[in-house]
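== Protein entry: sequence and backbone fold ==
=== Local backbone shapes as whole numbers ===
==== Amino acids and backbone structure tokens ====
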Amino acid sequence: MPFCPQICPYCDFHKMKRHEGLVDAYLTRIAEEARAYYERFPGPLDTVYIGGGTPSHLNDAELARLIGAIDRTWGWPAQVETTLEADPLTFDAARLRHWRDLGISRLSIGVQSTQDDVLRFLGRQHGGRDGLDAVEMALAAGFEVSADLITAVPGQDAERDLHALAATGVPHISVYTLTIEPYTPFARRGVVVDETREEVDYERAREVLSGYGLERYEVSSHAKPGHASRHNQVYWFGDYFLALGPSAAGFLPSETDSDKDAVVGVRTTNGPIKTWLGGRAPERVTVDGPDFVLDMLMTGLRTARGVDLATLRARTGIDVAGHYQALIDEMVGRGRLVVEGSSLRATDAGLLQLNGILRRFFADPPAVLAPDASPGDVRSDAAVTSQP
């Protein structure tokens, strides 16, 4: 849902200011897209995540239309978790009760900081107290709540933000380092992130939040037991997911003859709103075994659970442990990775150096599985050009 009340200078997502004609066209197209996908993938849905943009920027009637498009197809709410991203200034106690009645079970609230000067620098309209009040209201209304923070912001006291937000009792906090993406206003202004500050804030997040019972279960995600995001784990561990809306990305099973060589599935990416409204089909990229192995190493090693190499072999036919044995042994010896049964995971020290470790994996991709090969058999002469 790409519409926002303001455009933040650090954001490079597909977003825009709203006007009613465009919102109406968006909601009509979402309903058409849902019907088309439902005919191919009738569900039911385990999780639904309405992201943005700022989905809570929709008014009640517009949100009801969006939910109706899902309800008329797969049914509503999702069986396990139904999440809405929300800005602190877009709801009050009465609206929260309405959202609960609609079947929304989880809110992801963009607090970003509890310090007014930091929020002004980030281009946010809410104040520090507004964000904390929003989290407390949502908890009181009975929602499962996750709150977002941004760290390594110039002039920020990250530890103060971490303590203030965790003190609300929120059971899930996502902590993201400020990243200067190309072509954003911050990039044009020459804003720079201090790498030392980035590392210090990253470590302080783990230390501070663990004191409140929130343990890091993914590089940016901290939760109390039983409160981890169910939806996000779909991405990290290679499950299939549908994507509706402009610029949305999905991962689907292979269906057609043109996908017959895709061992695992097909990644889809919708175009921006103009082409999406015009009905252009999403871009499709087939994902073979080696591609999937590298994707799962990249996402799975970010998590406390790590990568299950036995599952990867079952899904791709590739002996990942055998192919990377020397690299794995080296990283285990240096205290960067740990092997527990069939699970490969990064240590705390490994997470700090994860990008460098992943570059080593991507520099030596596994071979392509032959079309007629049995699991475990690979072509040794295949040319693979996967990139991280």
